[in-house]
Amino acid sequence: MSAVRLQLEDVRKSFGQTEVLDGVSLHVQEGEFVSILGPSGAGKSTIFRLLTGAERADGGAIHMNGAPLEGRNRNMAFMPQRDALMPWRSILDNVTLGLEVQGMTRKAARAKVTPLLAEFGLAGFENHYPAQLSGGMRQRAALLRTVVQERNMLLLDEPFGALDALTRTSMQRWLEVMWKRHRWTALLITHDVREAVFLSDRIYVLSARPARVLHEFHVPLPRPRDGSARGLQEASAIEAAVLDTLLIREQAGGPHS
Amino acid sequence: MSEKASFMARTGPAALAIAGLLLAWQLYADLSGISATTLPSPTRVAQQAWIQRQALFDNAVPTVRATVLGFGCSLTTAFLLSILMDFSRPLRRALFPVFIVSQTLPLVAIAPLVVLWFGFGLVPKIMLVALVTFFPMLVALVQGYEATEKEIVQLLHSMGASRWRTFWLARLPSALPFFFAGLRISITYAVVGAIFAEYAGAAKGLGIYILNAKNNFRPDLVLAAVGVSATLTLVLFGITVLVQRLAMPWLRFEQEPSR
């Protein structure tokens, strides 16, 4: 059994009168890919804002490697919705951004990133501007910018939400391959059930606001999940179960949800 | 080849429109029998401008100097203040209304007063040019900082970047398109501001040249000076466009305007 990297216990958060998180508890183990799945506006992004330190929790505890999570340096690499690439920086300079903020010289950061460009399908594009790249390439650049920071954890906030369906599927497959190779500890926010099942080891399903964990699903599918017939069948069974949890609870949530 | 064709397609209609207006003006001046001291024809304006080229040039120089210096002052002040205001909300609340009020002052009334206080030299011109261009530049910068993509700010925060680092890495570059939009507007105000300041009192300059020509019943020379000032404005405008291309090389890859 590997060590617990991130642990949230009974975390609560309200914005004024609006209760957003109503005691969320979850954990992520080292080298594990975990997804948080929930309806829109359930407070998934709020969890990330607490983790990156943009907001403070009203109650509960957040631990990273057993120690309380606090301060400016959270040792987490965050990948926002949409790619958030800076249009005025070349791809290379976008990818080195996190390293530069950490205090690395531009030269050292470039030397560190350059050998990784090929693996991320960006070789030959390092001097291009983001506007010159396709949506999929931009997301790969954003992911490279995230992982190259070598933090304890990746926080992926609906990273493929802005892509067209075909590109999204191919990016999901690519990410699965990459994850298998590197074994990043990753926490993914999504409202795409198929994406969550395809990528994750475990899935937490959140209720509508105020969010609680409704159910925890294990996804014991073999990797790589290349879409073989047997894997597909099991995957759809899990997808159906997840959807049931989401939809039935949503109806039970009644007219005010 | 095709680039040349598209350039013609873009500039052709404008050139035709201007040529048409000039032609209509010429025909009216020639055929209606109107006196040249009321409405001189464009060819007469051009001819007189050529004869007076030395005087026009000598008077354009101080106008350009006042414009550039005044604009430089206003740009520097606007930039420094915009940074202070971006970092301090109270300062912003304190100063913004003052600047808005400064924009409501009619230039016609202010220009003679500034000349009265500071004399006929360069200083009042610089001040008046700064007065008319400062506010648009400040608003452009402050708005530009605000337009920084939230995700980029959140990303930098997650990387542990300080407020100042975030400003330097994200907010300042995000303001560039706004900055240049403001620059293009202000630079056209700047020339007008300088001429107005000279009109209110100066030893030399296009403004005083126009005033003298008008008093001597020489509308042809007034129009010649107007032509010079319009050319100046266009040249300065062109320079800002050029500088923007150099400063924002990624712009030509962005097909649609940013969100």
Automatic annotation (TrEMBL), chain A:
InterPro entries: AAA+_ATPase, ABC_transporter-like_ATP-bd, ABC_transporter-like_CS, ABC_transporter_ATP-bind, P-loop_NTPase. Pfam families: ABC_tran. SUPFAM superfamilies: P-loop containing nucleoside triphosphate hydrolases. It comes from the Bacteria. Coiled coil: none annotated. GO terms for molecular function: ATP binding; ATP hydrolysis activity. Belongs to the ABC transporter superfamily. Residues 6-233 form the ABC transporter domain. It comes from Tianweitania populi. PANTHER family: ABC TRANSPORTER ATP-BINDING PROTEIN, TAURINE IMPORT ATP-BINDING PROTEIN-RELATED. This is ABC transporter. Keywords: ATP-binding, Nucleotide-binding, Transport.
Automatic annotation (TrEMBL), chain B:
The keyword Transmembrane helix applies. Residues 56-247 form the ABC transmembrane type-1 domain. The chain crosses the membrane at residues 66-87, 94-120, 126-145, 221-243. It is found in: Cell membrane. GO terms for cellular component: plasma membrane. GO terms for biological process: transmembrane transport. Keywords: Cell membrane, Membrane, Transmembrane, Transmembrane helix, Transport. InterPro entries: MetI-like, MetI-like_sf. It is a multi-pass membrane protein. Belongs to the binding-protein-dependent transport system permease family. This is ABC transporter permease. The lineage of its organism: Bacteria, Pseudomonadati, Pseudomonadota, Alphaproteobacteria, Hyphomicrobiales.
